[in-house]
Amino acid sequence: MALPRDISCEAIMESVADGVFTVDLDWRITSFNRAAAAITGVPPHEALGRRCRDVFHSSICDGACVLRACIEQDMPLGNRSVFILRPDGRKVPVSISGAPLRDRRGRLMGGVETFRDLSVLHLMRKQLDGQHTVEDIVTRSAAMIRLLGILPQVAASDAPVLVLGESGTGKELFARAIHNLGPRRGRPFVGVNCGALPEHLLESELFGYKAGAFTDARRDKPGRFALVDDGTIFLDEIGDMPLPLQVKILRVLQEKVYEPLGGVRPQAAPARVIAATNRDLERMAGTGAFRSDLYYRLNVVMLRLPALRERPEDIPLLLEHFVSQRNLLSGKDIEGVSEDVLHLLLRYPFPGNVRELENIVEYAFILCPRGFIQLEHLPEYLLGAQAPSAGSAPAAGGTVAAVPAGPRTMAAAKLAAAREALRRHGGRVMAACRELDISKDTLRRILKGGGAG
């Protein structure tokens, strides 16, 4: 059936959401639709006439070109997943399909390829599977670049790794990158937060238990070391681990064995151990709050992640990264942050580090409908840091942030302190309780508005 006279093939190409381009027999681009330009970051007038490999820089341009295979085999080929490289350096995952292109007389005149941006699916898969690599660590900081430079060698080793850094600096991201760069990448990665469970529950979580070990133990239950087998186990917040359990972790590191609760025979523990903490383990070891033998066994390889306030040059880069991610996940097209917002964030000390910056962007996306994120789209607590005042106090890193007006009642003061402690510790209740020197029940009453404690 012929197309209506007022509808052209070009109009159809411009209306589809997938990228579409055609090439001649010399591999020069002869048409390039609007979606192709949006995905590749190359305007149509710059793409036309150039060889397709010079535009796409695809992972299959050297030797496995789908279009070449389509033309040589005289048949369509579809659903190949590849990466293309945009001019701004961003790698974009796409699904491509190709077919030979013939004129009305059936003579071969080139090829046509369609491609679909898989960035959203790729991002969601990474978040679900935790398949993070060095490429997911966004930085231009010299200190961070030095750390990234040694990660391949660290990953190739089986030595324990101790990752130090404040909450929100990306310790788990580094741990996953080490796992995925190394020979264990096809095996499980299992994380355990050592500060989230009481001692007896943490022990059974790590080592499992045998039937009859305690009242409700009706059957054997494997622990995380059994489940991870010869993969990688990540012991987060190891500084919060009780001393009796530290002895058992030391045995795992030295002898590669452990015993489940109620067990009488050692079981093999071939897993690689990566530990992390935001606490000063060296000082804790010196005071007896952490076993010194475990500390020195863990820090065969020590990676110390700088706080975000120590690498302000990364703030614009991270903002661009998080805005791009939120655009993909939300379907919005936010262009970035305004100059006022950027200046404010460059002055802010970020006690919550990179995680706090990501949360700020996520909050701003809720309020910002389009265009640039403005000051009014930011969380209220940030707006008090716009300008130093008589009540200003120096923040960490030598910057100055305004101190907002304090609460007027004791109950309000306790509530503000509790919320601030939880925010600093990423929502970890026990860490906040230790800082405030209160019990979990007291913290719960304060958050409910009682203010008792």
Structure description:
The protein has 453 residues and is α/β, with parallel strands linked by helices. Helices cover 41% and strands 17% of the residues. It has a five-stranded antiparallel beta sheet with strand order 2-1-5-4-3, sandwiched between helices. Strands 7-8-11-6-12 form a five-stranded parallel beta sheet. A two-stranded antiparallel ribbon has the order 9-10. Helix 7 crosses helix 8 (171-181), helix 11 packs across helix 13 and helix 18 packs across helix 19. The chain is globular.
Strand order of the largest sheet: 2-1-5-4-3
Number of H/I helices: 20
Helix content: 40-55%
Q: What class would the helix/strand composition place it in?
A: alpha/beta
What's the N-to-C terminus distance? 80 Å
Give a brief outline of the structure.
This protein has 20 helices and 16 strands.
Write the layout of secondary structure elements.
Layout: H1 9-15, E1 19-23, E2 29-32, H2 34-40, H3 44-47, H4 52-56, H5 66-73, E3 77-85, E4 91-102, E5 108-117, H6 119-129, H7 142-156, E6 161-164, H8 171-181, E7 189-193, H9 199-207, H10 224-228, E8 232-236, H11 243-255, E9 257-258, E10 267-268, E11 272-277, H12 281-287, H13 292-298, E12 301-304, H14 315-330, E13 336-337, H15 339-347, H16 353-367, E14 372-373, H17 380-383, E15 393-394, E16 400-401, H18 410-424, H19 429-436, H20 440-447
Parallel strand pairs: 6-11, 6-12, 7-8, 8-11, 13-14
Antiparallel strand pairs: 1-2, 1-5, 3-4, 4-5, 9-10, 15-16
Helix pairs in contact: 7-8, 11-13, 14-16, 18-19
